[in-house]
Amino acid sequence: KREKFFEVFNALNQNFREIIRNLANGEGELYLDNPEDPFNSGLYMRVRPYGKQVQRLEQMSGGEKSLVALALIFAIQRYKPAPFYAFDEVDMFLDGVNVARLARMIKELSSQAQFIVVSLRKPMLEEADAIVGVTMGRDNISQVTGIRKASMIQ
Amino acid sequence: KREKFFEVFNALNQNFREIIRNLANGEGELYLDNPEDPFNSGLYMRVRPYGKQVQRLEQMSGGEKSLVALALIFAIQRYKPAPFYAFDEVDMFLDGVNVARLARMIKELSSQAQFIVVSLRKPMLEEADAIVGVTMGRDNISQVTGIRKASMIQ
Amino acid sequence: MHIKRITIKNFKSFGKKVDIPLDRGFTVISGPNGSGKSNIIDSIIFCLGLHTSSKILRAEKLPDLIYSGNGRKTGTAEVEIVFENGDEELRIARRVKITDRNYYSYYYLNGKSASHGEIMKILEREGIYSDAYNIVMQGDVTRIVEMTPFQRRKIIDDIA
Amino acid sequence: MHIKRITIKNFKSFGKKVDIPLDRGFTVISGPNGSGKSNIIDSIIFCLGLHTSSKILRAEKLPDLIYSGNGRKTGTAEVEIVFENGDEELRIARRVKITDRNYYSYYYLNGKSASHGEIMKILEREGIYSDAYNIVMQGDVTRIVEMTPFQRRKIIDDIA
Ligand SMILES: Nc1ncnc2c1ncn2[C@@H]1O[C@H](COP(=O)(O)OP(=O)(O)OP(=O)(O)O)[C@@H](O)[C@H]1O
Ligand SMILES: Nc1ncnc2c1ncn2[C@@H]1O[C@H](COP(=O)(O)OP(=O)(O)OP(=O)(O)O)[C@@H](O)[C@H]1O
Ligand SMILES: [Mg+2]
Ligand SMILES: [Mg+2]
């Protein structure tokens, strides 16, 4: 049980480190406050955003925190890959530059798995292969207007 | 004590109704689940977004919920007016149309009080009288670059 | 394997039957507030039976998922997902039916009625688990940021 | 009355003195993630002493508010707010000073040392209360949405 825990922890830590470098151009690691007794400790994240000093999660800004949370989610997904991913407005705290970075990362990952992403932000729409538009009709019923982006460019 | 409670409740309810009409083009009201015993009841919001049926808060979408929360905040502020207001990214759940509506409402209110609004969204920047830019320098210290929008147009 | 099509009928705000064709690769779903975007993500969670305590469908009970507009509440909500897996197709569907006294939920695997357990067995073989870490719902990012360190550690316990 | 200028020195990420001139009307503060926007809102809450249980400054104790970059932690953080009220000016300032053993917090009213109570008396006359409903911090909208109906009702109790 303990062995399995550390196997997962070490794998997630490795993934987290790589993703923080890719997503936020920084250095990051996961750590336990009491590694001797893992089932009684808390999981913490230490991150050094690009050009800054090491910070704990509490001190970070709203956007920085959400990038760290996304890096943890991606680290878990890399450990347990799935054929498709669905994200609902995960980019809402991010400024334009960070949304574009996240969109590029998703685009890269989408060569290995399907990504279905709900977003209102322009940089996401620009990276997508296809866009599905949804509107609420007068009759109070949702409708879907499909747009095939790749064929739009052709 | 009970009298004062209902004075506040009725005033907030009246404000809430007006603001929901202005902000979300809908009808809204506050209600208590046990008006006989106000200090043992919960405060609920019933809203009929434009063209839809009446909904409870739990059923609404992320953006609709945040508009309702904003309407409650504005209803309280109208009851207890202050000389200045400071908002930190209150528009993050909203789509472009709703951000523009909120920005216009703030612009109108800004003739009676000062509004300082942190936002990343374009429709907010477009309605503002002045924009203060903030960046993080290489030395890890925040800097401010001021822009006087009104004079920019002149 | 990827989702080729989602068909939604009478589920939440989709009062009319709607077909959503999907490619491999990167698809964005966009539209105004309250238009039905999150309901599409909910429809995937509902159809595959992935709703657990952490993945809620914003409904108190299953019949709340049936479209109810202008007072009319028809009897059945249905979502079908067609997966493409190489040159084979895998069709999973789920229906919730309401009668005066009760409501029923049925799963279908390639057109034949199946149990939730059978569906989960097939999905787990393909890497889709009931903890549904592959689906991040609206607000999940905030929930992860605001978790206590203990709750975050429990994520590792779950995965191990 | 309105805020004419905010001066920030050694507070949070503002390691160098910064002056922010403000007009009446509608001002937007914008910039990349992590640049210091919320720290400006925090500086207003800190200077006027409006931090209560509901308005936190994302710091465990006051000395955490002092700029600490690249290891250097200087002794004093200071924020001054100049209000314009008709043709008069009202200047409120606050300093947090750290020594090896302790830390001190001082308030100033028009240049003369004052107590938090005196400051609050002047502010309440002008419509600025310690419940600070005029300030909505990052995440407050979500907190209101996720409150229980009981907690929401307590808002009315507070105001009454
Ligand atoms: N005492 C301190 N000394 C130095 N830097 C600090 C101190 N306290 C906080 N910071 C840093 O200030 C930075 C900016 O934080 P702030 O929350 O103001 O960003 P923001 O502009 O609001 O970003 P966002 O758009 O992501 O919300 C953070 O990276 C944080 O670590
Ligand atoms: N059973 C139902 N019948 C009819 N409408 C419903 C039902 N359940 C939910 N709805 C409605 O569906 C609408 C759309 O919700 P949804 O959460 O999908 O919006 P969204 O596009 O994600 O918006 P946002 O951008 O604000 O997150 C809501 O207004 C909600 O009231
Ligand atoms: Mg949504
Ligand atoms: Mg911020």
Sequence-ordered SSE layout with sheet pairings:
The complex is a heterotetramer, with 2 copies of chain A (154 residues) and 2 copies of chain C (160 residues).
Chain A: H1 2-24, E1 27-32, E2 43-48, E3 55-56, H2 62-79, E4 84-88, H3 96-109, E5 114-118, H4 122-127, E6 130-136, E7 142-147, H5 149-153
Parallel strand pairs in A: 4-5
Antiparallel strand pairs in A: 1-2, 2-3, 6-7
Chain C: E1 2-9, E2 18-21, E3 26-30, H1 37-47, E4 68-69, E5 72-73, E6 76-85, E7 88-98, E8 103-109, E9 112-114, H2 116-125, E10 135-136, H3 140-146, H4 149-159
The structure holds adenosine-5'-triphosphate (2 copies) and magnesium ion (2 copies).
The description of the largest β-sheet of chain A is: 3 strands, antiparallel
Question: Largest chain interface and its two residue counts?
Answer: A-C, 70 and 61 residues
- Strands ordered across the widest β-sheet of chain A: 1-2-3
What is Rg of chain C? 17 Å
Q: Using DSSP, what is the number of strands of chain C?
A: 10
* Assembly of the depicted chains: heterotetramer
Shape of chain A, please?
A: elongated
Main sheet specs of chain C:
6 strands, antiparallel
Q: SSE order of chain A in H/E notation?
A: HEEEHEHEHEEH
Report the mean per-residue pLDDT of chain A as an integer.
Answer: 91
Q: Work out the radius of gyration of chain A.
A: 18 Å
What percent of residues of chain C are in strands? 25-35%
Termini separation of chain A (Å)? 54 Å
Spatial order of the strands forming the largest sheet of chain C: 2-1-6-7-8-9
Helix content of chain C: 10-25%
How many strand segments of chain A? 7
Report how far apart the termini of chain C are: 25 Å
